[in-house]
Design a protein that fits this description.
With 102 residues, the protein is mainly α. It has one domain. The protein has one helix and no strands. The longest helix has 100 residues.
Amino acid sequence: MEGERIAHKEEAVESLVARAVGKERESLEERTRKVRRTAADLKAKDKARDRERLRLQAMERDLQDRKVGLEARDRAIQEQEAELARRREELQRMREQTEDLL
């Protein structure tokens, strides 16, 4: 009878230990799944951030190219305006000389 009682107690303890170990295993597995999901989310966010960074860099290069082009156009316009001013002055001088001759 004492042996049976001890055997039941041992079974009860083993059962409790097995349940506790099972719960801990489930808990660890759930945490592992959460960590893997978080890692996958972070990896996806990193890829998205890298794509956005590359897009912004391309946009920056495009804007810089456009700026250089606009600056060149501006210089060309200023040169043309200066040339027109010189021509106007020359025409004015020629008119004055023509009037002086008349």
